[in-house]
Specification:
This protein is an alpha+beta fold. The protein has two domains: 131 residues, 3-Layer(aba) Sandwich (Aminopeptidase); 170 residues, Aminopeptidase, CATH 3.40.630. It has ten helices and 17 strands. A hairpin with a 6-residue loop joins strand 2 and strand 3.
Length: 370
């Protein structure tokens, strides 16, 4: 936490955000052209207070179930109630969050706003709280860290959503921008035909180290699935430790979050790279079951990583090439390179083969020092 405690005097059980707001879509009476003021009763209520109100149980079960709160462990969660109905909600994380460019970060996640008017009040309340807690930069939407749900879809084509892709109303990016946030990171997903010749290995021999030549690539062992997740966790923590907004999570949370993949993975598409019988890299690709009825058969290349060792430069390309070759043999026609950061080296896996970018995503930030 940055310079404050949860017991900050600003926090109360419920606070009135707006009293007697005028509706911008003013109405007129039958015999008058004078706009009629529409008064709304609005409150910002702590989640713990709202849980006791059974009238909101159905909405909460659908939009913000207790399981999400238990899994994501926000420092606090607030619900925006308008005229007795839930119109928005958000959670905050400000304890043990990473710094960005020397500034202390607070995350806004579990975000929802029914419209732009509500969004203005929701985000103003969220940033005011984070500033109260000593945060210098508000970033969202991020559900506590980048292992969990984060990013907003901000641009799209006609390609359908794929398995495990984040989704949101296309109005949401405008909510953040209208509230003074700016994009602090952008991401893309692209699609290309499966390429068994994705990498010409003959061109790598002069640049690759002898260590890389001794790396073997195998399928994940489904009989040892959780033990394999243990190995992948160790690699991922090392591989992504310098990544944007990185914060480590416990191995228990990692395994809990990825255990469910057992039912959807094809073991020949989840690759483990080993050197001297020790795991040093991995690649996670999954069949796109969300579009299993499509005429084309698509695989989603989700995550790729290796331990930090310069002698392993080029391992990521080899893992991607192996995945393309296996996907081709299994009858897949397309591969989605999913959710890569635009300025990351992994983006070259798409650009070098002319992949078509079909979705854009962004994370937004706002300085709180004013």
């Amino acid at each position: 936490m940055h310079g404050a405690t949860k017991e900050s005097e600003w926090i109360v059980t419920a606070i009135a955000v707006i009293a007697g707001e005028t509706d911008m879509n003013s109405r007129t009476t039958k015999n008058s052209t004078t706009p009629t003021r529409v008064t709304r009763k609005t409150e910002l209520v702590r989640l713990t207070e709202l849980r006791a109100a059974v009238t909101h149980a159905s909405f909460m079960k659908q939009h913000l179930p207790q399981a999400s709160i238990d899994a994501d462990l926000p420092d606090e969660t607030w619900i925006f109630v308008e005229d007795g109905k839930i119109a928005g909600h958000f959670s905050l994380w400000y304890c043990d969050t990473p710094d960005l460019n020397g500034q202390s970060v607070g995350f806004i996640g579990h975000y929802f706003a029914a419209n732009r008017r509500v969004a203005t009040d929701v985000l103003a309340s969220a940033t005011k709280l984070l500033k109260q807690y000593g945060c210098e930069l508000a970033i969202g939407p991020v559900d506590g860290n980048t292992w969990r749900r984060y990013r907003l879809v901000c641009g799209t084509t006609g390609v359908k959503s794929f398995l495990m892709e984040p989704e949101n109303p296309m109005e949401f990016p405008g909510h953040f921008i209208d509230s003074g946030f700016e994009s602090v990171a952008t991401y893309s997903s692209s699609i290309l035909e499966v390429k068994p010749d994705f990498l010409d290995k003959s061109k790598l021999s002069s640049n690759d180290s002898s260590m890389l030549d001794q790396v073997s690539i195998r399928s994940i062992d489904m009989n040892r699935f959780e033990q394999e997740l243990h190995s992948i966790y160790g690699i991922a923590c090392d591989a992504f430790s310098d990544a944007f907004l990185y914060a480590e999570i416990s191995e228990l949370e990692f395994i809990t979050r990825y255990r469910h993949l057992r039912s959807v993975v094809n073991p020949d598409l989840v690759l483990i790279a080993e050197y001297d019988n020790h795991p040093v890299g991995f690649m996670l690709a999954i069949p796109d079951l969300a579009n299993s009825n499509s005429d084309t058969k698509t695989v989603v290349a989700k995550t790729i990583g290796r331990v930090k060792d310069d002698r392993l430069n080029g391992l990521g390309r080899r893992l991607m090439a192996e995945c393309h070759a296996r996907a081709d043999k299994m009858g897949f026609t397309n591969m989605i390179h999913a959710l890569y950061k635009d300025d990351n080296s992994s983006s070259t896996y798409s650009t070098m083969h002319g992949a078509h970018v079909f979705r854009k995503y962004a994370v937004y930030g706002k300085g709180l020092w004013q």
